[in-house]
């Protein structure tokens, strides 16, 4: 509800009614815009600065030791709202260096025609294995090209630093006893 | 060379001169369409069209990229597109008049240029001779008479389209033209009262106006925009309305009438309307330059003859009639292009008027103002010139 007295409108002065001073000041404003540097980012040559926490194309990452982080728990597959992720779980051979991790994806596909870049897969991942990174432009000529398979996901994902090395700790606890207790 | 020219039949001479002028007007029209896009972009903080380039031009080191940034090749791309796309003829139109309208649009636009002098040279006696296709005595009257025919094409297009928006656009075009033609003509009567001083041969030629603006002395060298600012203001406002530029783009009214009179047009026929609009703008700016901005005189109080005097001190070659002619045409074109830039600048500054505001401004403001202006100057000129 409006309170108080409404503002009284002053009658226009003669100069204002001729409309000319207003046009002149308007011309001054547009002239300022004409000469100032342009706002446009000329895209393919100039790239935008990607802010921290940007949600680009989802990728799979490896830890600094080169171990693939995903253990194919399929949580991301279940949480994915548009059902863009399809995981075929596989086993790691017991005699491999990371045999104690037991599972890794045999195939991991993200259909980028379905993905809505919501980041829920990254949020739900207990292994911090899936990350939405900086890549924002994803193109292809066919529908098949737009499905990122496991090799491609690791290729664009690369390696991210790890502060836990959770599975190394588990292995050392198994062999040397848990020093945390 | 000059003898060969003078031995040609006058008709052949006329045709060649006419073609030469058209060869200048058409590229200026094309360049204007590009300038329109560039100026719009700059005012909106964008660089504007700057990508198209022909490969062999891109091989030139500095000039190639510069031309690319300037968007020169987009003009060709636009023109090529307009020429080669399908020229659709809607089924519901009156075909004869529908096709006739764009042709009628071009004719007055290119005819008016005959009466507009666009440069000058000095003959042996040092007298300034205007360069024009036809330096006729009725000058301005011819320009006004023919250029107002341009509105027929809009009415014809609107009517022949047999559809509501073009029809409204055509009606608006005619109403707007009638409203502003009056104040436009009245606004320049004082000029001709002034230049047809007692003892001189009476004329409506545009050359005489420039002659009057290149006299020695403070008042003599003064451009008419300083001497009669109200006339200049009314004339340029009416010119905006006559050339259907924003803020008076009633016939087109992109905002409320889709495309106005050219809603049903496409491809080359639409392109003709477009070029005709720019040609009108060029001619209108030319007439304004001649009347108020001193024509081919480089600066106020500095006439072309003064400039040539200084230049011939440098080199006698610069005083050659051809050099002077080119120089004067260059000065004149520079002023015209600056004025066209002003048209574009205003387009992005002043919001467009509503239709009733256009009518009110024309009939209730500009017409009384131009009559008052005429009465004032008539009395003043009578007092000064009969002293």
CATH-defined topology of the domain at 58-163 in chain A: Alpha-Beta Plaits
Helix content of chain B: 55-70%
Strand content of chain A: 5-15%
Number of helices of chain B: 16
Query: In terms of per-residue confidence, which ranges of chain A show pLDDT below 50 for 5 or more consecutive residues?
Result: none
**Using DSSP, what is the number of strands of chain A?**
5
Helix/strand/pairing class of chain B, anyone? Answer: mainly alpha
Topology order of chain B in helix (H) and strand (E) letters: HHHHHHEEHHHHHHHHHH
Helix tally of chain A equals 6
Whole-number total of structural domains of chain B: 1
Overall shape of chain B: it is: globular
> Termini of chain A, distance in Å?
66 Å
Q: What string, H for helix and E for strand, traces the elements of chain A in order? A: HHEHEEHEEHH
What does this structure look like?
- The complex is a heterodimer of chains A (181) and B (387).
- Chain A is 28% helix and 13% strand.
- Chain A is an alpha+beta fold and 181 residues long.
- Chain A has a domain at 58-163: Alpha-Beta Plaits (2-Layer Sandwich), CATH 3.30.70.3270.
- In chain A, the strands form two sheets. In chain A, strands 2-3-5 form a three-stranded antiparallel sheet. Chain A has a two-stranded antiparallel ribbon with strand order 1-4.
- Chain A is elongated.
- The N and C termini of chain A lie far apart (66 Å).
- The model of chain A has no long low-confidence stretch (mean pLDDT 87).
- Chain B is mainly alpha-helical.
- Chain B has one domain.
- Chain B is 66% helix and 2% strand.
- Chain B has helices at 2-7, 10-43, 55-58, 63-70, 72-84, 95-111, 139-147, 150-160, 164-195, 206-213, 224-227, 229-242, 267-292, 304-314, 321-347, 355-385, and strands at residues 119-122, 128-131.
- A two-stranded antiparallel ribbon of chain B has the order 1-2.
- In chain B, helix 2 packs across helix 13 and helix 12 packs antiparallel against helix 16.
- The longest helix of chain B is centred in the first third of the chain and has 34 residues, at 10-43.
- Chain B is globular and about 65 Å long.
């Amino acid at each position: 509800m409006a309170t108080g007295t409404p503002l009284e409108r002053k009658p226009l002065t003669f100069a204002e009614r001729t409309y000319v001073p207003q046009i002149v000041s308007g011309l001054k404003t547009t002239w300022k815009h004409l000469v100032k540097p342009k706002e446009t980012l000329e895209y393919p040559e100039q790239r935008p600065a990607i802010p921290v926490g940007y949600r680009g194309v989802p990728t799979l990452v490896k830890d600094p030791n080169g171990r693939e982080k995903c253990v194919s728990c399929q949580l991301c597959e279940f949480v994915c709202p548009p059902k863009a992720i399809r995981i075929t779980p596989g086993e790691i051979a017991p005699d491999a260096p990371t045999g104690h991790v037991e599972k890794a994806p045999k195939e991991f596909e993200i259909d980028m025609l379905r993905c809505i870049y919501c980041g829920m897969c990254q949020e739900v991942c207990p292994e911090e294995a899936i990350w939405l990174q900086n890549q924002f432009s994803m193109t292809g000529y066919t529908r098949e090209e737009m499905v990122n398979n496991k090799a491609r996901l690791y290729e664009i994902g690369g390696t991210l630093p790890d502060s836990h090395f959770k599975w190394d700790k588990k292995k050392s606890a198994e062999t040397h006893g848990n020093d945390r207790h | 060379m000059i003898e060969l020219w003078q031995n040609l039949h006058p008709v052949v001479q006329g045709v060649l001169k006419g073609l030469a002028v058209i060869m200048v007007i058409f590229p200026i029209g094309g360049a204007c369409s590009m300038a329109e896009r560039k100026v719009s972009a700059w005012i909106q903080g964008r660089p504007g069209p700057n990508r198209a380039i022909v490969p062999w031009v891109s091989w030139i080191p500095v000039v190639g990229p510069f031309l690319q940034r300037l968007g020169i090749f987009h003009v060709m791309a636009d023109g090529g597109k307009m020429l080669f796309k399908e020229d659709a003829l809607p089924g519901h139109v009156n075909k004869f008049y529908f096709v006739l309208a764009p042709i009628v649009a071009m004719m007055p636009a290119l005819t008016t240029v005959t009466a507009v002098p666009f440069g000058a040279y000095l003959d042996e006696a040092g007298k300034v001779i205007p360069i024009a296709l036809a330096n006729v005595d009725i000058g301005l009257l011819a320009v006004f008479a023919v250029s107002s025919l341009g509105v027929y094409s809009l009415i014809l297009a609107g009517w022949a389209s047999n559809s509501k928006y073009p029809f409204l656009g055509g009606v608006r075009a005619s109403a707007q033209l009638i409203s502003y033609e009056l104040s436009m003509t009245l606004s320049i009567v004082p000029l001709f009262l002034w230049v047809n001083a007692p003892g001189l041969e009476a004329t409506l030629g545009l050359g005489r106006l420039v002659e009057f603006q290149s006299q020695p002395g403070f008042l003599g060298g003064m451009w008419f925009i300083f001497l009669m600012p109200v006339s200049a203001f009314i004339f340029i406002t009416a010119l905006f309305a006559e050339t259907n530029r924003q803020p008076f783009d009633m016939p087109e009214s992109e905002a409320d009438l889709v495309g106005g009179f050219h809603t049903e047009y496409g491809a080359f026929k639409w392109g003709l309307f477009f070029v005709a609009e720019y040609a009108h703008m060029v001619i209108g700016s030319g007439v304004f330059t001649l009347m108020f901005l001193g024509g081919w005189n480089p600066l106020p109080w500095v006439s072309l003859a003064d400039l040539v005097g200084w230049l011939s001190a440098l080199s006698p070659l610069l005083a050659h009639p051809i050099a002077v002619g080119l120089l004067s045409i260059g000065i004149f074109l520079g002023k015209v292009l600056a004025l066209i830039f002003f048209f574009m600048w205003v387009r992005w500054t002043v919001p467009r008027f509503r239709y009733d505001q256009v009518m009110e401004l024309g009939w209730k403001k500009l017409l009384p103002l131009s009559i008052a202006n005429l009465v004032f100057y008539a009395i003043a000129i009578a007092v000064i010139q009969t002293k």
